[in-house]
Design a protein that fits this description.
109 residues, mainly alpha, two-stranded antiparallel sheet, 3 helices, 58% helix, rod-shaped
Amino acid sequence: MTNPKIEKVKANIAKTKAIIADYQVKLKDLERQKIQLENDEIVALFRRENLNEDEFAAILRSGKKEHTEVGGQAQGASGVKTDELISASSVKPAENSDRGKEENFGDNA
């Protein structure tokens, strides 16, 4: 004969594990969405500034090496303000016909 209290706790454990598994799936999807949105912001900035891949890579490298405070705003050695990189979500892709096309950034395939 089994104790009904133990069975009830076991059922609650199984239910809780199922809920946790669902939330882990949801969390993974939300993290994927966040990364995609961040990547979209970077591409928008890339296009807005009409940079080629080498110029953009140089900006990213120089920003890692040195940051200074200019006029109350963080600014990397490249002169690109940090908040410009962060606020790229309000930027639409460049209208320039040569640079507004879909490109594979970093993919040589």
